[in-house]
Amino acid sequence: MRIIKYLFLLLLLSLVALSIFIATQKGVFTVERSMIINSQRSLVFNYANDLKNWKDWNSLAVEDSLMNITYSNNTIGKGGFCSWDGKEGSGELKTINTKENDSILQTMSFNGNSADVSMSFKDTLGKTKITWKAKGRMSFLFKVKTIFDGGANKIFGRIFEKSLNHLDKRLDYEINTYNVTVNGVVKKLEAFYLAQTFTSEFSKVAKNSAIVFSKITTFCNNNDITIKGKPFAIYHTYDTTNKLTKISICIPIKNPIFITEGSEISSDTLRSFEAVKTTLTGHYSHTSKAINKTLEYLKTNNLRTDPTFSHLEIYTIGKNEINTPSKWKTEIYYPTIPKPVYKPAVAIPTTTEEMVPKAQEEKEIPSEF
C-alpha cells in the first residue's frame, strides 16, 4: 500500500514538474516555408487572395471533407474573413492588407493559438516563389502538444508544406485547363439592367468586378428588384496598348426602373444586336485568347464590328456557381454590323413562257440571351 502511495506521489510530482516546465517554455513561435509554384504570379496572387479558394488548397480543409466553413460577404482582399470548425479544431482567418501581386497580410487564430501571417509572391521566369510565414503565440495545451510532436515549427511547417503542394497542383490543373469555341453569328435580345461604370487596368478588372457585382446584387435584394439572367460586363473601350478599359458591370433585371440622379448605380437598356459569339470554358485569365480567336473569325469572314462598344461578356457559370475554375463558362460577344442583303434583279421574260425566280433562302440567325 505504501509503495502505491509513493508511486502516486511520484506521478503527481512528475506532472507538476512537467506543467511548470511547459509553462516556463517560450510561448512564441515562428514558422516559414517557401515553394516555387508553376503558375504566373498574378494568377497565384489572385487565387490565394480570395478566401473562398482556401478550402481547396489549405491542408486543414483538404484533409477534412466535413469541415464547416463560414465566409464573409466579400472574401477578396482586405477585410476578407473566414472561420472554420473541423476535426482538427476551429479557427479564424482575416485579411488585414494586400499589395497587388506582391503580398498578403493576415491574422489567424487556431485552437487557442494566434499569429500574424504573411504570404509574399516573387516572379521567377513565369513561375512564382511563395514565402509563407507565421509568427505568433501558443496556448498552454498546444505547448504540451509541441513537446511530444516535434515543436511548433514542425507541426505548422507540415501544414504549410502540404498546403503549398495542394496550391501548386490545384492551380496547375484548374488555371491551365481551358477551351475556346467560336460559335458564330447570333442575335442578342433586348435586356434591362443595372450597372456601375468605371475605368480600370486589365489586371484589376476581376477584383473590381467582384466588388461591384456584390454591391448591385445587394441593391437589388434590398429594393425587391427581380434579377433576370446572368451577370455581364460591357467593355466600352478596350485599350490593349495601355492595358486600360472603360467597363460597366451589369446585373440584368426583369423590368426597367428609375434610379435617382447622382447614384453610383445606373439603370439602362441593352438594345438587341447581332454579334459573333465565343465561349470560353475555364479561368478568366484565358479571356485574351478567346478575344484573339474572335477577332480572327471576324477578319476571316469579313465581318465589321459595330463601334457602339468593344464587346460584352456574360458570366454564365462562375465562382458563385462552382468553385472549379476549369468549369467556369464565359460568353463573349463582339457586336457586328449586319451585312446588307441584296435582292436579285427580276429578269424580263424573253418568251411567252413566264420565268419564275426561286425565292432566296436566308440563313436564320439564332436568337439568344
Keywords summarizing the entry:
369 residues, alpha+beta, Alpha-D-Glucose-1,6-Bisphosphate, Chain A, domain 4, Multidrug-efflux Transporter 1 Regulator Bmrr, Chain A, nine-stranded mixed beta sheet, seven-stranded antiparallel beta sheet, disordered C terminus
Give a verbal description of the structure.
- The chain is an alpha+beta fold and 369 residues long.
- The chain has two domains: 24-174, 2-Layer Sandwich (Alpha-D-Glucose-1,6-Bisphosphate, Chain A, domain 4), CATH 3.30.530.20; 180-335, Multidrug-efflux Transporter 1 Regulator Bmrr, Chain A, CATH 3.20.80.10.
- Helix content is 27%, strand content 36%.
- The strands form two sheets. A nine-stranded mixed sheet has the order 12-9-11-10-14-15-13-8-16. It has a seven-stranded antiparallel sheet with strand order 1-7-6-5-4-3-2, with helices on one face.
- A hairpin with a 2-residue loop joins strand 6 (113-124) and strand 7 (127-137).
- The chain starts with a helix and ends with a strand.
- Mean pLDDT is 86; it is low at 355-368.
Rg calc: 30 Å
Multimeric status of the protein: single chain
Task: Provide mean pLDDT, rounded.
Answer: 86
The named CATH superfamily of the largest domain: Regulatory factor, effector binding domain
Tally of separate domains: 2
Q: What fold name goes in the CATH topology slot of the largest domain?
A: Multidrug-efflux Transporter 1 Regulator Bmrr, Chain A
Distance between the termini: 88 Å
Instruction: Give the overall shape, derived from the CA principal axes.
Output: elongated
